[in-house]
Write the structure tokens for this entry.
Amino acid sequence: MSKQEKNKKDFEKKPSNGFKNIKENDQFILDIKRMGINGEGIGFYNRLAIFVDGAIPGEGHNIEITKLEGKMAYGKSIECKHASNARKMPECPYYAECGGCSVMHIDYQEMLKYKREIVIEALSRYTTINPKSFEIKNTIPSDYTLGYRNKSQLNVKKNDGKMSVAMIKAKSNILVPVDKCLVQKDLINTLNKKVLSILEEAKVEPYIRKTNTGSLRYLVIRATKENKALVCFVCQQKDAKLKELVNKLLAIPEIVSVYENINSNDKSLEIFGKETNHLGGEEYVIETLGKIKYKIYPTTFFQLNSYQAEKMYDVVLKQAKLSFKERVLDAYCGVGTIALYLAHNSKEVIGIEYNKESIKAAEENAKLNKISNAKFLQGDASELLPKMLRDGEVFDVLVADPPRTGLGEKFISAILESKVKKFIYVSCNPATLAKDLEKLKECYSINSITPLDMFPQTALVETVALLTLNPSVKK
Ligand SMILES: C[S@@+](CC[C@H](N)C(=O)[O-])C[C@H]1O[C@@H](n2cnc3c(N)ncnc32)[C@H](O)[C@@H]1O
């Protein structure tokens, strides 16, 4: 028996007492039982969950405990003792270092199953809802598992006089220069290089916090399915050289729009600052999803995988079962994406969105598509929805696609009060979805949850949950 196997046996013999039996640097063999929300493998020692990056359910790893925290422990794999059939070679040479992707070592079809299981696990963990009491569909796959991201917003670095874009190493603030990111559209990789070489020639310098020199912090590129691109330079302070480069940039056939954004707060994790200036070319790029065209500006929200966004909006449209008579509310509407997608089949659609630029774009998008039954309101959804209900507004279908933090108490209270018959909850975070469903179950039943793979090579999973008002709830 090896030393690690003996350790494992010894551990198992001891009574369950949380961390008392385990300390940092302990090594033993751990069987991986399931996948964590970030794609890690989880094994159990007694009832203590141990998270191991890069381990896959079904595998056995010789691990070393790296951290003990609350009711959880973290370990690193020293050796994979037996590998899962789902294990594969990651395609990307930066995979071990870069923090962008987390499950590129797992077969795609298997990962789709794990994503569904992550949703079930979140429901089991955060709710009293029985996940078998309704349908949880198979994860809708992405047609493109690489080359799908329509936006890159990367740090800019200079090494030995050569500019490059850089990713942030996982669980650190170390920058890893990358020549090519495989999940980004090829066009974005090509344009990153072309733009960087123009910047280098013009002696534009990346901002260095330590010395407070240079200007350029991030290079942002958004590209459409038709390969039209918008370039935005995010700078610590204005750099007059950038304006002079506009014609050179616009001479690259795919680049149609150039912006600068000033973000002087180098302690903030936000990419964009408040000041955005159009430097040249078109003011926006246009993306088409289904029959609807959307103007995209540098700072407005737009789903990062256009191909999957279309599939997701199709799911919402199908579930809404509209018959041209309904008043639909799209809360957290971004540039009006879901509202406009549903407008042709509704009597009226109303979108609520916090971001002023997005609301402006939503109104322009309605005009661009000749949609006259859409109205957009700027404000906090959790303030506006209760107000609209107090004013006597009635909706037949409510759609909400909030940020990762979920719906929030006030918004949930408003839905419960609204007694809207059909609620379609689009979520990018199974944990907050589950916590919100636990509260919504007071008046609503879950008909189905459809997981969807918006971000292949990551453990992120998007879901569309269809909820209907319980018949016993009185209006
Ligand atoms: C996940 S995005 C969804 C956007 C849109 N449904 C789409 O698919 O493109 C969430 C949106 O909610 C907006 N938002 C965040 N907090 C908000 C709030 N409290 N009230 C209204 N909108 C908010 C963000 O600006 C963002 O556009």
About this structure: Residues 301-303, 332-334, 337-338, 352-355, 358, 380-382, 401-403, 428 surround S-adenosylmethionine (CB under 6 Å). The two ends are 68 Å apart (CA to CA). The CA atoms of residues 366 and 372 lie 7 Å apart. The chain has a mean pLDDT of 93.
